[in-house]
Amino acid sequence: MIIGYARVSSTGQNLDSQIEALKEAGCEKIFMEKKSGKQFENREELQNAIDFVRSGDTFIVTRLDRCSRNVKDLHQIIDVLNQKDVAFKATQQEVDTSTSTGRLMIGLLSIVAAFENDLRAERQADGIASAKKRGVKFGRSSKLTDEDVLNIIDLQNNTDMTNQDIANQFGIARSTLLRYVAQYQT
């Protein structure tokens, strides 16, 4: 049996062109969903399709990115299909794991994708380092200003307010208040 899987990322997108291509490829059953392709575990219809296929079946997508957005998930999906003796095909990229050339293509595409991820991570690290040199601060913005901390210390020293009362007044947790005071005093 030939089983198809069609996916778009958002509800505003249309599955029609994928469904048409999968029918032309001979799909007898097509699983469809409108979800992000980032994580295999979050796509119920993909999991249903993989559960549905049996030994000797062929699992078809129009493009690899319809099945997975990352190499790890793609290999996980293909491994599961291989264990079930199910061929994997991507019609627009002419990938077919039932042939040695198709298996080679999957391997090469995975290597290229991993290389691209490494390059992207290096560029991101370079960008972050450059931004830090220019004085850009990363992370959550400070909940309290230096003036707030001075006011808190003044309230602690000159009133009968508890740390919890002061924290409530500033809209922060007591532990946050204590951490800011400790950092300011060091």
From TrEMBL:
- DNA-binding as a keyword of this entry, yes or no, is yes
**What positions constitute the catalytic site?**
9
Keyword tags: DNA integration, DNA recombination, DNA-binding
* InterPro entries in UniProt: Homeodomain-like_sf, Recombinase_CS, Resolv_N, Resolvase-like_N_sf, Resolvase_HTH_dom, SSR_resolvase
Q: Which Pfam families match?
A: HTH_7, Resolvase
Where do the Resolvase/invertase-type recombinase catalytic domain residues begin and end? 1-135
Report the family membership. Belongs to the site-specific recombinase resolvase family.
- Protein name in the entry: Recombinase family protein
Organism, as annotated: Sulfurovum xiamenensis
